[in-house]
Structure formats: C-alpha cells, structure tokens
Amino acid sequence: GTKKLWGGRFTGKTDPLMEKFNESLPVDKRMWAEDIQGSQAYAKALAKAGILTQEEAKSIVEGLDTVAAEWRAGEFVIKAGDEDIHTANERRLTELIGAAGGKLHTGRSRNDQVATDTRLWLYNELQVIRKALRELIRVACDRAEAEADVLMPGFTHLQNAQPVRWGHWLMAHCASWQRDDMRLGDLLPRVATLPLGSGALAGNPFLVDRQFIAEELGFIGGVCPNSMDAVSDRDFVAETVFFCALHLVHLSRWAEDLIIYSSGAFGFVQCSDAYATGSSLMPQKKNPDALELIRGKAGKMQGNLMGVMAVLKGTPTTYNKDFQECWDLMFDAVDSLHDSTRIATGVLSTIIIKPEAMMKGLSSEMLATDLAEYLVRKNVPFRETHHISGAAVKMAEDRGCALSDLTPADLRTIHPLFDDDVAAVWDFARSADARDTEGGASKRSLLEQVAKMRKYLELS
Ligand code: ARG
Prior knowledge:
The protein has 460 residues and is mainly alpha-helical. It is 60% helix and 4% strand.
C-alpha cells in the first residue's frame, strides 16, 4: 500500500473501497489555493515561534509556491494515497523540498487546517457573490427609475387588487435582496474567523501567534475563541447554505412572477432570446427556462440546507469525519447561487416590458377602493363606504359594464354624496400616486425608494 501521513501505528492495509470511501480529494481539491495560503501563513508563524529556521520557512513557502504553480498549470499529479487536499499538498511539498517539508505540520492538525481552508475559500467566494447580488440590485434600481411611469396591476392571491407601478414591483424584490445583502454582510466576519492554532482540539503547544496568522490571511473576524469549538464548528457552512437557500427562495418568487407575467394570458413581459429556449416540437414557443431553473434550484437548495443540518446534528464535540459530507453541499450551494444571481441579472437587464398589456390588465374595478375612499374624504365612515362601493361594483356587474362606466348620476342613486368630480377617481396613475406614504406606490415614493437603495449600496 501507499505510505499514509497517519500510518505509524497501523500494520494492516486499508480496504480499497474504504480508501475511496474516505477520500475527499475529488471534492476538496477546489481549495488547493487556500490550503497553500494557509500553510504558508502557518510556516511563517512557526518561524516566528522559533520552531522553524528562517531558511526552513523560506523553503516551505517557496516549495508551496511551486505546488501552487503546478495546480494552476493543471500539472499537479495526484498519487494514490492523496486522501484529501491537505495530504496531497504536503506530500508534494515534501517531494520537492525534502525534510523541511515534514516540519510544516508541527502542532497543526487537519482539523484546524480544513476549517481554516474552507473558511478562507468561502470568504473569498461570498465576496464575489456579494458583488453579483449588488449588481442585481443596481440593475433593478436602474429599471425602476427609468420605467417609473409604467403602471401595472398589483395582485394579492394572484387576483386583481390595485394599480401599482412596475418599478414598485421591482423595488419590492429589491427590498428582499437588500435583506439578503445585509445577512451576507453580517455573515462575513463569522466565516472569516480563524481556527488555525487550535491543533486537533486542545490548542497549539508551540505558541504560534494566532493573531498574526489571522492578519496574514485577512480573517476579519479574528480568531476562534476556543480550540474545541474551532474544530467542531460548522455553523459557517450551515449559515452560508441558509443564506443561499433564502436568497434563492427570493429569486424564485421573483422568477415565478415573471414566468406568470410572460405567459400568453398576461403578456406583461417577454424574456429576451438570451435567456429563453424553444420547443423541439412547437415552433411558436419561447420558454422562460432561465427563470424556471432558478425556481428549481431554489427547491434543490432546501435539500442542501437540510443535508448540512442533518450531518451536524448529534455529532459529538470537536471533529468528526461526518463533516466531510458537508463540502459538496456547500460548493454546490455557492455555485448554484452565484450562477442564479448572475442569470437573474441577465434576465432582468434584457427583459422586454409591454406597458400596453400591463394597462390592459388594469380594470376600473381595481379602483373600487379609491371609490370608497372618495366618500371617506367626505366624512363617510370607511365601513359604510366599503359597502357603498361594493354596491357600485354589483351595479356595474349587473349591467355588464365597467365600474368606470357608471355615471355620477348612477352613483348618486347609491349615495347622494357622489359629486360630478367622482369621475376623477377613474385614473390608475392617480390611484398609485395617492399612496404617497414612505414605501407606497406613488411615483415620488418609488423614486425615493430607488434613491435610498442606491445610498445603501454606496454606504455599506
Ligand atoms: N478531509 C477531511 C475533511 O474534510 C479533513 C480533515 C481530516 N481530519 C481527520 N481528523 N481525519 O473533513
């Protein structure tokens, strides 16, 4: 068999299937760069602590640069016995520089190493994701502002409710994306907290300077406060996958709206060719596949989250090999989210809107509330005006006409306080603009929402 890093006390051979079952290299080789960075920082810390000479540390750092160059060039040769990225890199380093390579792992365990590598990898990725998320918000703000005059029906229960602005709908989704951005900002320092220097579980006897390592690696959250917790804690994985799952839920609700709006019956929007596909049978089809995939990935992500939680549940304190099962769920979560966010940005920046179809979707019945409010302004209690307006809706329905076809004289047969100026109620823009409270559907409020969102992006 192959020589194992941990083979000293072993005499028997590993079952070949066990070898495969145990190995994580196919998954965790993705963190080769972070594993090397972590080792370089650790070598420097060992030199600072007087465990390595400056020459030894230098030869380790340079040897690791060579290993990195091999990975980058696609020339790193994986050998039998390379159990995971940590053993593979150390094996190669020792081949390159000899005995000094064998000193790198002094006081270190793969337990504090793997947690460090993953956190480093995740911290970098989450910053890339944050940029993508913010780009999506930016695109939504730009459209909301540029198309602030476009009116559309707002729905509750997917039933016609009240007129809103297309931009108001956009900013509704932006508000959920902003919370995602805040959650991500809050999460970053907890991801970027350093486990290294915790050893297998009890700490480091060579007194490596953990603050120094944290600074070397850019861990903004400082160092993990307890060595047993440091090798035990996978909250950063669970929180990240939860963040991915919730952001995908938000994206999928946004996607679902657009899938409905792009259907033949609505026709409010049309996906650009770049994000749609056709049918192999029906020549006329243009399907919103990008949006459907986002919706599907949101479903799958619930499974990733449950997977991580279930792996962690009931594991005894400190490190257990169960944890290894989290990595592919985490990588998949990060990949799916990054792709989905960028696709969403592409869809949103190219989607064609059909303001006339949105106008057609508006009917004067959606102003029945406004009709009631007209009488409220004449001091009739709302509970009564609700009934009065309901009676008008019934009258229009009985006559088979639109609510707005009722004349002021018709309305006066229901209540005497309807004056001729009631005709001004039949104006969708006026209805939206009447809702001029902070966060309301008025144009002024909409532009204010956009301005505040931009300020948020600027300041945080
Ligand atoms: N490949 C392992 C993992 O991902 C690295 C840590 C191994 N530690 C150990 N004590 N066997 O979890």
